[in-house]
Amino acid sequence: MRQPKSPDLRPGYPGQVNRPTILLDCDPGHDDAIALVVAGAFTRLIGVTTVSGNASLEKTTRNALLTCQLLGLEVAIHAGASRPQIAEPRHAEFIHGASGLDGPALPPLTREPAGSDAAGFIVESASDHSDLWLVATGPLTNVAAALLRDPKLADRLAGIAIMGGGSTFGNVTAAAEFNILSDPEAADRVFRSGANLVLADLNLTHQFLLGESHIDRIRRLGGPVPTFVADLLTFYSTAYARAYSGRAEGPLHDPTAVLALSHPELFERERRHAVIELRGDHTRGMTVVDSRGSHRGEEANLDLLTRIDAEAAFEVLLAAIHSYRGGS
Ligand code: RIB
Ligand code: CA
Question: Which ligand is nearest to the CA of 177?
């Protein structure tokens, strides 16, 4: 049975009170692909842009096309930056595999990118959609390029929801998280842009750990999309065990940046001031978050998501996956 182009929400989805209009800039990547699952189910996804990050631009673009094809999402995908502005390109095969989406069996690709100017597409989309949220789940190279292309972009957008950074720890170095460290100069431009920023950092995403029992529940839904997500998470959690904790569970980073907009009630948040360290020998790419409270530091420039109701968020994720049940 052919699924609707973008699954219609049925009443009763947990906590679905609004359906934000979003453009997702991503580097699929296992958790980016699951962010696409959530975005397709719970937002008005008007476009996708891809960036070099977890894998090369060619691979992240291919993976975004394959994921949207498998989900039956008819959405324009525009490729973007093949490398950061200044930093050397950095990838993460040790978590995402050589293809950037290792694990699931994927169908032959039948789709093409709609273009290769992600920054231009972001700028054009912001002027076409007055309520547009930009969601960034990879290095911020495309976002910074779009801000440079249109100096009014920060005001045009409803906001920018970012997965990146770590208030108290990193995952590439002790201080720096992958998305930010991959292009610190781009991140610095975004954090200083004056846009309405929402940040899902590692301190938040490590509260949303998925392991075997979660994967079993997803797989038991049955059908191509639950199987795709379960296979993604099996590969991803095993890679995390090997690389970090020894426990077969992985933090589901990127979907939190989408859920922050579609299901804000799942989160607690605080106004904070954060800057990007560009020069430290040991701290380049660090998100320096001022936790002293606004009376001491500079004026807050973002909403920092500080807590997620992980159990409720998993039920919402399950509902998103279930909404595709028949596959494309
Ligand atoms: O550090 C985690 C982030 O880096 C996630 O967005 C993951 O997909 C990688 O891009
Ligand atoms: Ca990502």
Answer: 1
